Structure formats: structure tokens, C-alpha cells
Amino acid sequence: MPALTATTPQSPWDLPALSHCAQAAWPGIALQWLASIDSTNSELMRRAANGQQQPCVLLAQEQTAGKGRLGKPWHMQSGQALALSIGLPLAPRDWSGLSLVVGLAVVSALSQWARQAGAAPEHMAAQRLGLKWPNDVWLMGADGQGQKMAGILIETVSHAAAVMAAPQSAASAARYVVIGMGLNLKPQDLQDTSVPPANVQDWAGVAVNPQDLLAHLIAAVLPAVQQFEREGFAAYQSAFSAWDLLAGRAVRLSDGRVGDCLGVDAQGELLLALDGEVVQITSGEVSVRPLPGAGGDHTVKGV
């Protein structure tokens, strides 16, 4: 599919400007916009299955069947949220922790955008912006109750070019990764959510210019993924701890176990104190929720 231009009917974006932003971070990457799609992640995965595995940023004005981790639906009302997916061929030594690195890039981009947009620090301090392992951006109040502002979904397929070139070599470990991001911009009237989602406008206390925020996201995520490919999650472990909303809190796993979160290790696995021992939890095993109450008193850097 050819890249669309700013003259495309109904396009709300200055696509050439966004494309320039993406190209500055990842030369040769395409940037495309769709008025409506079931899911930007699903679309890039379909393309990848058909051999289209070029670097691409795919934006959508509307998603009709957005999805999150563990197959959970992600709701999006047109104009109230951002939906984008980035498809990239990658070959890191270890894939562990990629969603955490993307999350770090998202909160960093949000913080930088908010400062430039004139958001008042005292307004944003009412709720702590941070990361809920392994793939969510949350706002958390002093009572320990969290609200989801953004979600990240990582999917991969075998990278066709690497497999064809050297099916028995280390290069065959290369994969095409699709990084999906959904970000709530404004309040949404969602009837089937138990906890109303957080949104950027209420958090920052200023009007949201989606174009500016999207440019910040693209400029933050692409370099972060490049560094992850070279250095892995260990290079980000310290930075993640500054944004970690679970560390120091009692948490409940989806399998019913309750323990104290001790942060993450150098592979991005969650460390929990359970029954007198420290156990490692991988993102594919369970989901985790903080228990209400005090805890996790960290100073968040960059806000």
C-alpha cells in the first residue's frame, strides 16, 4: 500500500511532517494512515503473513476491533484516542522486556509533550503517571487505585528475508515485530468497563493536540527500539524502576497468588516475594494487579 499524503480525504494528520519525524529516527520507514480498520496490529500482522515485512508506522482514525494483551478488547471512539502500530524487522539477542522499553518511551514522550504543552506540574502530580508491568501506562492515585491510560501489544512473526537467506543460522532468529499502542486522549463513554480509563487531557489539564503528541511518541519509540535491539532490556532496567507503579506494593496475580512486588530483573521479569522466597514472573504467565493501599513511594523522574 503506498504512503498516503496530507491531501488524502478525511486525513486529520499532517502526514508528511509525521513521516519526516519517523524517517529521522528510522530511515526508510513508511508512514500510512487508514480511516478505519479492525485493528492496526491485525492489519500489519496480515501483511507480514503475506510477505510485506517492511518498516512501517500505521495510523488509524478508527479501530472497530482493537485488541490488547491476552486477547482483551481495546475500546476506541473516533477522535478520543490514538491508535497506531509500528512494524519492524528486529534481531535482538533477547526479546525479553521489549514491551517495558516501549512503555518507557511512551511515558517519556507523554512527559515531554506535557511540559511543552504548558501542563502545570502540580496538576499532574495529583496522580502518578507510570508503568504497570508488563504493558500498560497507568495513572495511580494515593490510594493505590490505578486507571489505564494506554496499552501496548507486541506480536511477532518469523522474518521471511532472514529465514530464506540462512534458515540454519543465527540470522533466522530475526523476527518481524508489530508494536501496537493505544492511548486515550479524552474521556470516553464506555459502558462495559468496570473502572473508567484515564486520559491524557484530564491528566495534563490542557487541550491535546494529537499531531504533536503523536510526533513525540514516534520520535521516542523508534530510537528506544533500536537501542533495545543493540543492548537488550538491561540498559533500561534502572530507568524502568523510576516509573514502576508496582514496586513496593502488594499485588495479586490472576492465578490467585498474592505477594510483594520487588521490581523487575535484568530480563524484565517481575520479581515477587511469595511465601518466603523470590520468584520470577514472565509476562506470558499471568496478569497482575496492585492491591489498594499505600506503597510504592518512588520519586518519578522526568515528570
From TrEMBL:
Keywords: ATP-binding, Biotin, Ligase, Nucleotide-binding. One of its GO terms (molecular function) is biotin--[biotin carboxyl-carrier protein] ligase activity. It holds the Pfam family BPL_C. It is an enzyme of class 6 (ligase). The keyword Cell cycle does not apply. SUPFAM superfamilies: C-terminal domain of transcriptional repressors (SSF50037), Class II aaRS and biotin synthetases (SSF55681). Residues 26-229 form the BPL/LPL catalytic domain. The keyword Transferase does not apply. Its EC number is 6.3.4.15. It catalyses: biotin + L-lysyl-[protein] + ATP = N(6)-biotinyl-L-lysyl-[protein] + AMP + diphosphate + H(+). It comes from the Bacteria. One of its GO terms (cellular component) is cytoplasm. This is biotin--[biotin carboxyl-carrier protein] ligase. It comes from Lampropedia aestuarii. The lineage of its organism: Bacteria, Pseudomonadati, Pseudomonadota, Betaproteobacteria, Burkholderiales.
